[in-house]
Specification:
Chains A, B: Pfam families: STAS, Sulfate_transp. Chains A, B: Keywords: Membrane, Transmembrane, Transmembrane helix. Chains A, B: It is found in: Membrane. The structure is a homodimer of 628-residue chains. The first copy, chain A, has 628 residues and is an alpha/beta fold. Chain A has 3 domains: 34 residues; 426 residues, no CATH class; 119 residues, Transcription Regulator spoIIAA. Helices cover 60% and strands 7% of the residues of chain A. Chain A contains 28 helices and 10 strands. The longest helix of chain A is centred in the N-terminal third of the chain and has 29 residues. The first copy, chain A, is elongated and about 110 Å long. Chain A starts with a helix and ends with a helix. Chains A and B meet through helix 1, helix 20, helix 22, helix 23 and helix 24 of A and helix 1, helix 19, helix 21, helix 22 and helix 23 of B.
Amino acid sequence: MEVETAVLQKKNTNETQKEEKYWQYHIRKRIYRHVPITLWIQRYNKMDGLADVIAGVTLGLTLIPQSIAYSALAGVSPQYGLYSAFMGCFVYVIFGSIKEVSIGPTSLMSLLTYEYTRNLTPDFVVVMCFLVGCVEFLMGFFRLGFLVDYISVPVTSGFQTATSLIIIVSQMKGILGVKFHSSGFMDNLCKLFIHANETKFSGDFALGISCIIFLIFMRKLKDIPISEDTTKKKVLKHTLWLLSTSRNFLIVVITSTIAFGFEYNGKEAPFALTKNVRSGLPPFQFPTPPTVDNHTYMWTELLIHPEFRNSIVVIPVIAVLANVAIAKAFTTEGTIDATQEMFALSFCNILGSFFQSMPTCGAFTRSAVANASGVRTPLAGLYSGILTVLALTFLTPYFHLIPRATLSAVLITAVVFLIDWEICKPLWTISKKELFVVVFTLITCLSFGVEFGLFVGVCVTVLNLVFKWARPEIDIETILIHNNSNTVEYNLVRPSMSVYFPAVDLVCNKVIKSAARPVVVDCHHFSNVDYTAAKALSTLIRTFKDRGQTLIFFHISPKLCRTLQHAGCESLVHANTDGELYSLLFGYDLADFSDKPFQVLRGIECIANSKDAVPLLKSPQRRMSALE
Amino acid sequence: MEVETAVLQKKNTNETQKEEKYWQYHIRKRIYRHVPITLWIQRYNKMDGLADVIAGVTLGLTLIPQSIAYSALAGVSPQYGLYSAFMGCFVYVIFGSIKEVSIGPTSLMSLLTYEYTRNLTPDFVVVMCFLVGCVEFLMGFFRLGFLVDYISVPVTSGFQTATSLIIIVSQMKGILGVKFHSSGFMDNLCKLFIHANETKFSGDFALGISCIIFLIFMRKLKDIPISEDTTKKKVLKHTLWLLSTSRNFLIVVITSTIAFGFEYNGKEAPFALTKNVRSGLPPFQFPTPPTVDNHTYMWTELLIHPEFRNSIVVIPVIAVLANVAIAKAFTTEGTIDATQEMFALSFCNILGSFFQSMPTCGAFTRSAVANASGVRTPLAGLYSGILTVLALTFLTPYFHLIPRATLSAVLITAVVFLIDWEICKPLWTISKKELFVVVFTLITCLSFGVEFGLFVGVCVTVLNLVFKWARPEIDIETILIHNNSNTVEYNLVRPSMSVYFPAVDLVCNKVIKSAARPVVVDCHHFSNVDYTAAKALSTLIRTFKDRGQTLIFFHISPKLCRTLQHAGCESLVHANTDGELYSLLFGYDLADFSDKPFQVLRGIECIANSKDAVPLLKSPQRRMSALE
């Protein structure tokens, strides 16, 4: 949007302003919004191009091994990972608005794909990808981007940590070489402890551990502090950085070469290898519902399939959340357009499904790579996509050589750094309630599945917001005003926020209980109320009238006045300026008022909130002091 | 509470203030709160006593026929209605806090009882009453009274109209003499139209219609305008009022006498009569889970019984809602203590269940009677309870003479005036959205059951509140300040309410897009933010720093300062007074500031809300004027 403004401004200086018609402006704005490439391509220069090529290739070196690993996590053959890794890249170049996002298989999508299709064939995965794309389109069309605003950072953090832990534990099983059937994270973890003594120090174990150590060491390599004062040192630093960034690719190449060595010598490798992979590019075909046991599913049947149906709601929400979270983490300029991300993801998934893709979204780990590689525009995705296509065309015959332990190591080292320890310290200081939300979301995700945990976490935070409407802070102040001859004491009741139905009883109670002197309700913070509140305020006004006590509404908006009138309020005393208020309190005519000098003394002050419901009554002493 | 204050105040003037210990005060406060009789009995005088006797007896004359009718509605024998009508009255005298409430069977409770136990024996109804009482106690103990605050007037209105319509339609079947099986309101209504031509002009029909006409006529009787200038006219007016108020009792006596006439002459009455009724008071016994087909239920089994389990959550909530709604409608002084009402209802139902009661709560129709009879304290309930006990002791042998059509007429005329037409007009003027809530709740109640409709209605209104957190109004103002030599132009961004996670992106977007001049964020309306918002604001501050644009937080609270710091904000520019703000904008030292005269001009003003997301960009013309 920022960029858009700049471009439009340039245009406007060339042409005269009035030539541009209103609707032209609007169409262009729409196009800029929904096809972001039209916006940034105008400023694209050679330096951007170079930066994007470097970033794109670096990204590709992470994308390819990760895709293969994530396909294993999703429970499908390795080629599906690569099938998912190119179309999204190409489409996102055109429709994407966040340059750091790298569309493709992700840990989250793979985990959810596995959860929903573990007992189904890969055809279901492709159909799911298509339906997910359609739902994302509908979400974009109905502008449901705002839904993501309701997922707070503590919930995201707990959710993300939970997915990381689930993936690590699921991969540890393979690396430790223990065998058992399990369902869910908790069961997995328990059985892992029970079976820990059965750990076989086999080739898988040795390879897995070595790969993890290698990957973590390589990750740290780029952080070695080398001053860039000489050209040599500069080159060294850049080489180290490149080695570090392409560590996933390197480990896959190294371990595959070892496996190739064994195969070449006619021996069996001492570690498990990947299954044989179908060669070449995927065929282009419209996704059709799969046939199982001679029964071809209908689209409608899929929508009510007990295992399947939830996925097409859960996955789109989480995909959009992931993209927006990436944007929030990396973007420094401009703003995030969640609705546009929904459209972009939708096209990525729908077109991806024509090439046998599984559901895709932006990946956190790759976004960090993209950011560190100095990506300039989403065009970087083009190069990583091309790299994936090349890998599919030329490298698939060698994919069966990739050891499974290597893929597990790639997965573990990718997600272990997503465990969000850092959030605990600030939350401990700022708000223990929010820390509880993190822990609660984490535990629920681990115990009952990530999507349920996310949902419950959102519910808890939203309920907290709902609760806030019921317990506004209400300041009650006793104020003395003197003029030459008289003194008037009144209570000023000031709710800190709008008063809607959950809070109105509390406010009325405060006003009724505040004391036997005139009460002034300060309406600064609410320009209107709902019918329930209006009814209650009308009753309050009647009560005060019956009691013969003065009740003045201060700074009431004309809208609120009308609402009260329609809700049956017969007599409303209100003042809009200090002068009006004082003259009402002293019982003067307004005209007389201007002559008289007033002195305002602010007396006993107390802030009442839910915990301290009746401050003036808290103890007899205090009450008396308020009354005397 | 008001009364409490008054009493305490009197005490304080007698004793010296310091003699009363803090804890003594608190214990007394507790007792006054939870056993309200201890409070009002101190001021009870002869006039109160007389008023309560009159009101209590009048109330009894409505309570007895209504109880019999409501037991028919609940699908149990007539004696259960009376069994439910005395214990609650006695208990509420002690624990009740709303003088207009008359505990006993109500249309709402009967309807729900029928819904949950239509296929079960009356033993289940008694056990349900006990469990409902227990749940009400727990709700009171955990101070869940606030839950009722979330049920707004439009939802209550839709719900109440729906229950009235359901009851009327269910009773019309009996009066029209058509026979069909139906499930739910919609089905009932359709079949009623289909079978309308089968209407038999039998004795039931004639009697039912006559009774309805009689009851409506009698209801209007008390509204006849008679001046009270002579004693005769006064007596006439009071007689008419008494006749009108005891109309339910009268019609039952009259029609039963007709039936007795037929029986006495050895003929069969031309209309259906009530089944034979067990005579005398109910035995006192602890409610035990019922035995069905030689299987004695366990308490735990009841809690998971498919038909039964929902009732013990739904009925307590609705019972408390009913009592609070009555309080809101009739009370003119003091405030409503929903938690205490939960305790009172709990004791009424638990003790009631020892005497075979069905679930009870306060009834709207009877409260109107109590109010019109000039009730002074809950003691009136004692007299209506005694009247019910007398009826049970002496009149049960004659109960079989009451014609069923009379009971239907009593029910219909009781609920027909609960249909809330009046709310439509003000809501049409004030808020169409709230009118939609009424209609939506009504339709959902009629289509899917009243408790589901209530739940959905609450959800809709609460979601609307949640949505409000995401779309705060944000004022953006461009302000020019001059001093002798310089001019500074800045944008003042002022969110109208607290900024929590759903709104923070919107606020940040507004600030980022507001323009290239210094931006001042007015934090008047938020004293603190949550972690998500703090994180986003920190990013915002960093973005402005990177852009080299000034961003000043105005009137920031120390708490908010700390939160931002802990959330990772490194540099925060803030001002707490106009002086500080202006000197920051002009780049002066604070010390220099006091000498310089300033002139403030408020420039272009616009209010941005969700519908008008980018006001400065709305059209090129407008944007330019804002930029130049």
